[in-house]
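Per reviewer request, we include the raw input and output of the structure prediction for the construct analysed in the revised manuscript.
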Amino acid sequence: MSASSTENSSQPPFRDPTWNPARWLPTTRDEVVARGWDELDVIIVSGDAYVDHPAFGTAVIGRMLEAEGLRVAIIAQPNWRDDLRDFKKLGAPRLFFGVTSGCMDSMVNHYTAAKKLRSEDAYTPGGQHGFRPDYATTVYSKILKDIFPEVPVMIGGIEASLRRVTHFDYWSGHIFPSILADSGADLLVYGMGEMPLKECVRLLKRGVPFSSLTSIAQTAYLLPPGEAPPKNKNWDDIALHSHEECLENRELYSKNFKNIETESNRVKARRILQLTGEQLLIVNPPYPVMSEPQIDASFDLPYTRLPHPKYRKRGPIPAYEMIKHSINMHRGCFGGCSFCTISAHQGKFVASRSKESILKEVESIKQMPDFRGTISDLGGPSANMYQMKGKQQWICDECIRPSCIWPDVCRNLDTDHTPLLDIYKAVRETDGVKHAFVASGIRYDLFLHDKGTTPEVKASHEKYVEELAAHHVPGRLKVAPEHTSDHVLKVMRKPSFNLFYKFKEKFDRAAKKAGKPATPVIPYFISSHPGSRPEDMADLALKTKDLGYRLEQVQDFTPTPMTVATEIYATGTHPYDGSKVAVARTPEEKQTQRSFFFWYKPEMRNILRSTLNNLGLKSIATRLLDEPQKTTDVTPPPHIAPCGKQLRREPTRPEQKIFRRPDRRK
C-alpha cells in the first residue's frame, strides 16, 4: 500500500483539534489547499515518518524554513516501488526539493552489524519495515531528478553528511564516491543544517540562482569537468587523493581520512577538493559553532511535539516514544571516539542552549496529555558537556586535535559542571515535575580528572556525582567504557578502564550518602572493534566477572562511514600513523569475540574453553569458566594482570546475511 493511499483511507474527525491543518506542515494536496496555497517553495522528502518534534531533523528544517517565510511541505516515506505518485502528488516546488534518509543512515536503520534485518524500523509507525529503501537519499534523489529534471535537489541529514566524500560502505564492501556523484543531487548540506540553509534561503530570496550557491559554508557540490574552483579569499584549500586513486590504493584512501577529520573539526578549516571522475568535489568548511541565540531559535520553533495524526491507526513510532518527554540541552561532543559519527556530523565543539530555552521546553512537555511528571532525559550526545568550552578561545582556534578529552582532558577545556547543576536544580524544582532523569550516557573522565582545575571546578565535579546519584538516576545509570583492554581503548580513543573502577566507587559512595538503594551502574561494551582480539575479549570477560556483571547491554562493532574505526576496518591500517591493526571481519571471527560477553551461559562454556585452549590460555579458561562468580564488586590489584598473564599490547558487532527487501508494503 502506498503512502498516499494510506493517508486517504480515513478522513480526519473534525471535532479533533489535533487535525487542524494549520498546526502541521502540509503532507497532502488537501492540506496545502487548506492553507490557501497554490504553490510550494520547498518540498522535503524524508525516509522517516513525520514527527513534529525538535529531535527529528525533518521537522527542524521544515519549521526553520517556515520561519523564514517559505511555504514548506513534507512527503514522508514515499513509495518508491509503484508509479511514483507520492513523489508527484504535490507538484514541483518553486525553489528546491530537500531530501533526507531521516534521522539515521538508512543502512544502519535497516541492518544489524551482522547484516541481518533489524527487528523494527524505529522511525516508522508500528516499527514496520518496508517504508524506505536502502540508500534512501540516493534513491529519492534519482527519482526526483528523473521526474522533475529542472528542479534543484538539496540533500542533507546523517546519511548525506557522512557520505560527502569518498567512503567505505560496509554493507556492500565497496568504496563509493561522494553521495553527490551517485544521487545526482545539486547541493549537499552536511552537519546540523540550520545555518547553511538560512544562508541559502537568503541568497535565493535575492534572486541568486541555485547553481550559484557555491560559497556557503558547510555545503558540498560537484563542479562540471574542466571548471575551476570558485575563488574565495577566506578559505585555503586542501586537495585529497582522487576517488579513482582511492579505488586503486586503499593506503591512499586511508591517508585521506586524517585530513577529512581534521578539517571537519577545526575552527579555521580549509576547503576540501577531491577529483571524482571528471568532476571536482568541493566541500566548503563548516560553519562556526552555533551561538546560544542561534541554537535557542531552532529549539523554540512552534513544534506540536507530536507525530502527525494520520499515523494514529498504524501504531506508535518507537523512536518518538523513547524521546517524547526528553530534552536535548546541547549539540556536539568533545570525545572524538573512533567508532562514533557525532563529531563528524555535529562537530567536536559544544553548542549549548540557554537555561530559559530549556525551561520553556519543560513547560511545553508539561502540556502534553500523556505527561505524568517525569522528564525522561536531560541530556545530549554526552549528558554532561553542557556549557563547556575552551578557557582561551585562541587555543581552540589553532587546535587540530580530534578529541578534547583523549588521550587526556585538555588543560584548556573548562569542565566546570556548575551550569549543568543549575539546570538540573531548576528542572527538578519546576512545578509538575516529579522526576528529571539523566538517561544519556555520561563521560566520567570529565569529572575525574584534575588537569588545570581550580578548587571551584573540582568542587563542581564532586557535587555533580552527588546530585546525579541523589536525584537524577532512573533506577540504573548507563556509562560506556566500551572495552577493558588498554590497547583497544587506545584505538577507540577512550580512557583506561581503571577510570571506570574509580567512577563506580565514587558513584556508589554518593548513592549511599544520599540514602539511595544500590543503583546498578550499567556499562556498555563493543566486541570486534578494530584492535580487539579474542584474548582482549577474555580480558573483558574476566574483569566484568570480577565486578559481578553478567552483560546484556553489548553490541558488535558496525562500520559506518566517516569514522576512524571504519577506515581501519576497510584498510587494516590506522589512518593517522599507518600502523597495522588487527581486524575481525568474518562472521566466525565476530561471533568468537561476541561469545565472550556471555561466558556465564552453559551453552557457551565448551566453545569458550576450546577458543582459550587454542590460544594457549588454559589458565584463563579455568578462572573464567570454572571459578564461581564473586558476589561483591572487586577491583583487581593494580600489580596483577587481570588475565593472570601480561597480554600482548597492540593498537586498535551476530552472524551476517543480507535480507532481501519485500516486493511490496503490507
